[in-house]
Amino acid sequence: MDVVIVPTPAEVGEHAAAVTARLVAASFPEPVLGVATGSSPLGLYQGLAARVRSGQLDLARARAFALDEYVGLPDAHPESYREVVRRTVTEPLGMDPARVRVPDGNASDLDAECRDYERAIVEAGGVDVQIVGVGVNAHIGFNEPATSLASRTRVEILTDETRQANARFFDSVDEVPRRAVTQGLGTILDARNVVLVATGAAKAAAVAAVVEGPVGARWPGSVLQLHPAVTVVVDEEAAARLELADYYREMARARGDVAG
Fold first, then answer.
1. Can 144 be counted among the known catalytic residues?
2. Architecture of domain 2-255
């Protein structure tokens, strides 16, 4: 796991975008992205969009699979992940909407939808670069604590903690759905590369658990320690509880990831 600590959230987005662009280039011309929603990846997407506008990056033939989607939220709702992905990923990155898939949280048979989603990822050749954020309880996707580390795409019940955290996107917590379709931890681990971004002091405990804690279901994101190609990009506040922060800084300088 490569850990890069930069001073500010803006630098997190730019550095993570540079890493992602490099990995995408290695899979050109038809890379497959795994895309997350939430606040954490927005700077990364903005950095990719700038590269698309300047002609440095072409994602016209890329494919993408969203990590998750709420169950029961209308597709046109501004906080449905289908709509969020359209606003923050598909359109800014110049992607073909027909090549971007989000789980159908309104499917009449959700179990069948989950199986179909898994199959579609495999048929696309697998995900080349999976982008993830991390929740305060270290969930990735909507894989809440106690999730099996081998889990696949399924319907997950959201904890009150997660619903409270997501309430900022709604008028009240009562409007936040109680269930979601999410890729499983095992599904995420199948990606060839993973880029995790996190900013702010509220994520410090989760980042420490993901990077340095024991691997286990209490902190679902800790499963990324088992993946051979993970890049974690965080700001100083999110890195505040990393016991080996100086070591990560030294290694990042040695790799040329940061100046110094």
1. yes
2. 3-Layer(aba) Sandwich (3.40)
